[in-house]
Amino acid sequence: MTKHKDFKHLVRQRMSSTGENFTSARAAVLQGRVHEHQSHNASRPMDPKADAFRAKTLRTFMSDGRLVSIPSKRRALVVILLEILRVFETDRIYREKDVNTILEAFHPDFARLRRELIDYRYLNRDAHTGQYWVNNPLPERSGHLGQETAAFETFLR
């Protein structure tokens, strides 16, 4: 995170108005595309049911930026994983130890969170080098993964 409050405030404003994660909003602000989101949002309808479900899930499972418990329902898990994904930078390569440290700040069962992020293909990993990175852009979904993630991933695309 940056120490510059003004810049962080601009990024947070963009995040709340576009639904982008921190890294995407930061990149857009850095490139001077702050006002681009207005025309982009006009073409993408907001789903009030998905927004309500997301808000309820975050209230239920997160307290003070930490997970109270890991949801067992897949759809709620996707909301939590996307919230956790906001912490990762898209243009950075992480060591497994770094990923574990980040995830442990959310919940003691960081191994499960890491596995879920990999399974949903939010993070990629090189088994030979032990390096992790954010999968950007997100992969196209089909079948049950498409149903679980569709309403929530649209904010990241």
TrEMBL record:
Full protein name: DUF2087 domain-containing protein
Concerning InterPro entries, the annotation shows: DUF2087
**Pfam families named in the record:** DUF2087
Tell me which residues make up the DUF2087 domain.
66-134
Superkingdom of origin organism: Bacteria
